[in-house]
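dumping this here before i forget
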Amino acid sequence: MPKKRRNGGRSGKKGRGKTRQVDCAHCNCKPAKDKAIKRFIVRNIVDSGAMNDLKASCAYDLYALPKWYMKTYYCISCAVHMRVVRVRNRQMRRNRQPPQRFRRRDDGGKKPEAPKPAPTAPVGAAPTAAAPAAAPEAAAAV
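structure:
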């Protein structure tokens, strides 16, 4: 019978007969630790709306609020259902590289502005002197 996955759906067992079971964060079933989908979550303890109030009322200028660190485990069915992982076709399953990571922008979440087009002459106006001069240079480069 052909194998669907190179590791049989388990990661890191390496010859051990059995691994301990962990709790799925969604349905509380008990997948084996090497078969579960693992995610490490880092969040702020305070939501963004209250964070501005705390910064305004804080006596210290550079007080860093503590973060909330949590490692979650999901069984395969819950991870697919919650879109933590996606179903991939046979050829894409061979790709073992991690997906591209989400990178936060440093400009405060603003989208970069597209460059504005150069102003055009009104309809029916005579062409400028710069436009015919550029055409011979482009023809000479070819």
